[in-house]
């Protein structure tokens, strides 16, 4: 699989997330306040809730339903009730294009 264009970088709002789907994989794309674009699995591991509807603060994305916050860098939950991480995907910026390949997750070991 190859990387797919999911958004224009110029269309992303700081400290907010959008939900995209590539080949059935739901991904939350986030532009943090430092201008870094992150891509993590969009479904909260505590419940079947879209994380893109949540709240961005620093390098975290908080689920609006139950308050679990996930690290945008590692995908790990930072508080309960979630205890399982979400996948983190590599993001490529090519000019104004944000590209993601859902088959390529970051090696966090």
Word description of this protein:
The structure is a single chain. The chain has 109 residues and is mainly beta. It has one domain: Rieske [2Fe-2S] iron-sulphur domain (Rieske Iron-sulfur Protein). Helix content is 0%, strand content 44%. It has no helices and nine strands. The protein has strands spanning 4-8, 16-22, 25-31, 37-41, 55-57, 60-62, 69-71, 89-94, 97-105. The strands form three sheets. A three-stranded antiparallel sheet has the order 1-9-8, with no helix packed on it. A hairpin with a 2-residue loop joins strand 5 and strand 6. The protein starts with a strand and ends with a strand.
In short:
The chain has about 110 residues and is mainly β. It has one domain (about 5-105): Rieske Iron-sulfur Protein (3-layer Sandwich), CATH 2.102.10. The protein is built from no helices and nine strands.
* Count of alpha/pi helices: 0
CATH topology: Rieske Iron-sulfur Protein
Could you name the CATH class? Mainly Beta
The CATH superfamily bears the name Rieske [2Fe-2S] iron-sulphur domain
**Strand order across the largest sheet:** 1-9-8
Shape: globular
> How helix-rich are the residues, as a percent range?
under 10%
Keywords: 2Fe-2S, Dioxygenase, Iron, Iron-sulfur, Metal-binding, Oxidoreductase
Pfam family, one: Rieske
Domain Rieske: 4-100
Protein name: Benzene 1,2-dioxygenase system ferredoxin subunit
